[in-house]
Amino acid sequence: MKFESYIFDLDGTLIESLRDLKESCNYALQSCDMPTRTLEEVRMFVGNGVKKLMERAVPDGLANPRFEEAYAIFRQHYLHHNLDHTAPYPGIMEMLATLQANGKSVAVVSNKFYAATQQLVRHFFSDYVSVAIGECEDIKKKPAPDTVMEALRQLHKPVSTAVYIGDSDVDIDTAKNCGMPCISVLWGFRDKPFLIDHGATTFAATPADILNI
Prior knowledge:
Blueprint: E1 5-8, E2 15-16, H1 18-31, H2 39-45, H3 50-57, H4 67-81, E3 87-88, H5 92-101, E4 105-113, H6 114-125, E5 131-135, H7 146-155, E6 162-166, H8 169-178, E7 182-185, H9 192-197, E8 203-204, H10 207-210
Parallel strand pairs: 1-4, 1-6, 4-5, 6-7, 7-8
Antiparallel strand pairs: 2-3
Helix pairs in contact: 1-4, 3-4
């Protein structure tokens, strides 16, 4: 464990949340008389925040006159149902406990909207994660470096001893824009060929692998 600070993505990295995202997405689509999406479609829609998820899921995206209605329904439904099926991936809790036992600082930075990020991190990881930042109106979201830099500021840690861990191309770009290394996990929403195509160079096949990088 050569790093002092570990900054984690949330969905697809710490938690398996795809089913709840899909069900809230389809609830919103059905409520607005729009066709629903499959689990694999939603898998490819996530990674850039829930507004982008709905932009991709709604026919014609932002140009659809009912887009804002569908997006608002999604947000409300997800806040009440984001724990229906979501859970940490196997090995995550043990990995976080080991980081804590070794005096490491841990933060979560997500493109999920702020209230849901706070709720999920507080529910699952309050013993291990001291800083959690979701999408904020006044801070540019990933892949811009702003939210990661804010997390490091709150941790009182420099970027020079930090690593970013995520499961997507957005996370790879975020780490690059922060000037920090990235560990790409292989249990998340994107497979290894996709990650390699988008510049990934360091991989963790299990949460325990993160401890040995």
